[in-house]
Amino acid sequence: MWREFIVLDEIWISSKNSEKSLLNITQLLPLILDCFQLESHLAKYDYAFKITLQAFLWPTVVIGVVGNLAVLIRIFAGYTSKLSNNSNVPLKTFYLFSLVSFAVSDLLFLVSSGTNALATISRDKVGLWNLPSWTCSVLPYLQTVAVISGSITLTGIAVDRYKALEINPAWSRGLSWPCVTLYNLFLWLLAFGVSYPILGMYTIRTFKYRGEHGCVEGFQCGLESDINVHYNAALVYSIIFAVIFMPLIIVFITVHVLLASNILRFRLHSSEMHQSSGNNSQPAAAENSTGPSEATNNPLRLPPNEPLNMTKRKRRIIKIISVLIIVYIVGKLPSWILLMCKLRISLKGMFWVYVQQIFSSLMLLNAALNPFLYAFLSETLSVIDVLKKVRCCKKNDPVYSIPNC
Q1: Which residue ranges have biased composition labelled Polar residues (predicted)?
Q2: Alpha carbon of 375 to those of 41, 75, 85, 288, 323: distances in Å?
Q3: Distance between CA atoms of residues 39 and 117, nearest Å
Q4: Rounded to whole angstroms, how far apart are CA atoms 327 and 319?
Q5: Across the chain, which distance is largest between two alpha carbons, in Å?
Q6: Which of 65, 258, 360, 372 could be disulfide-bonded to 380 (CB atoms 3.0-4.6 Å)?
């Protein structure tokens, strides 16, 4: 471990009066001192935090990749079968293409950001880069492309859902596949073009530190020390955040709030209509109770349990909309805010390192949950219902009974 000291002593003892040996010592001292200085600057991850984060990241990345691949397989298989059966596929062309684009963007983000996060947390030292050098420049670019394309696609899905509630025959027919293809092509070209200034902005910096076997060369990935590079990076990310990301968040939240308010207003209106129809039909039923033939003149009414079931379904839809908004905000907004702060002020200390790792993990969790919140929503709700029934059956509360479970 301390082989430089042994070599140094041997040189000094065997050639005490040699100028060449003094020259060798002069050349070795800066290297040894340099290793000593940089060793104290390397921070370490807390062991409990490292193990916990690894236990969270590995299942998240694996489930996210498998889930998004399952979305692509299901859509392509279903689309092919519908084409063979000559069914009315163009009705859902926009939504299907949007799900494909959304799954591809999530896969791109999970692969790029997940690889970076897992490689970073696998080392004890903070900030060491152990991936190939070209990934330092490419991964931030791919992450930005994935976030922009996914955000635009998700906003388009929200607008499409809102338009589906309106009685608009022109919109209900759906867009043709050439229009949808051009839309998605433009979306991805925009994401690649806007993110292009980030390509090559991050570079590898080399330094030396003392490891277990002496002086070791380490690598760090970050912005260059030039102040112009930091200014350009702050400008690019600020434009992306202010011009693209924040408007998309506002549109996404606004559309879903309008969607929930329309559903709630329709629920109140339908309950009032049911109450009025029920009050008006009671006297008629009493007057026409003389024979079964006159019962056909009564207005058709919903079954007694139908209004309750409709209310439960609409209440569930509102809960789903709330979950979509919360997952979107919590998964994406904190990382962007922290990035804006890091580019303008100096955030030193291990606390901010842990905060950055947690926020990055939230973005990965968001990408892993998206398949189950959009493509496999029905299956997710079915699993939740089964879990609720199992929990209901295990309770000893008299309100719940085994037959209702």
Answers
A1: 275-296
A2: 47, 9, 22, 50, 15
A3: 23
A4: 12
A5: 130
A6: 372
Distance separating alpha carbons of residues 146 and 142, to the nearest angstrom: 6
48's tokens: 């409990």
Element (H, E) at 256: helix 246-287
CA 132 – CA 136 distance, rounded (Å) = 8
Cα 301-302-303 angle, rounded to 5 deg = 120
The first and second tokens of residue 363, run together, are: 């973005």
pTM: 0.77
Q: What is the phi-psi region of residue 302: left when phi exceeds 0, alpha when psi lies from -120 to 50, beta otherwise? A: beta
Q: Which residue has the tokens 């303008």?
A: 344
Tens of pLDDT, residues 8-52: 333 333 444 444 444 454 554 455 555 654 555 677 888 899 999
Q: Summarize pLDDT for 215-244 with one digit per residue, the tens.
A: 777 788 888 777 888 888 999 999 999 999
Contact 297, 236 (CB under 8 A): no
The token pair that represents 136 in the structure block: 């330092």
3-state secondary structure the chain: CCHHHHHHHHHHHHCCCCHHHHHHHHHHHHHHHHHHHHHCCCCECCHHHHHHHHHHHHHHHHHHHHHHHHHHHHHHHHHHHHHHCCCCHHHHHHHHHHHHHHHHHHHHHHHHHHHHHHHHHCCCECCCCCCCCCHHHHHHHHHHHHHHHHHHHHHHHHHHHHHHHCCCHHHHCCCCHHHHHHHHHHHHHHHHHHHHHHCCCEEEEEEEEEECCEEEEEEEEEECCCHHHHHHHHHHHHHHHHHHHHHHHHHHHHHHHHHHHHHHHHHHHHHHHHHHHHHHHHHHHHHCCCCHHHHHHCCCCCCCCHHHHHHHHHHHHHHHHHHHHHHHHHHHHHHHHHHHHHCCCCCCCHHHHHHHHHHHHHHHHHHHHHHHHHHCHHHHHHHHHHHHHHHHHHCCCCCCCCCCC
Tokens at 314, concatenated? 């609409």
Pairing relationship of beta strands 214-223 and 202-211 according to DSSP bridges:
antiparallel
Burial class (CB in 10 A: 0-12, 13-18, 19+), 33: exposed
Alpha-carbon span 52 to 103, nearest angstrom: 27
DSSP 131: S
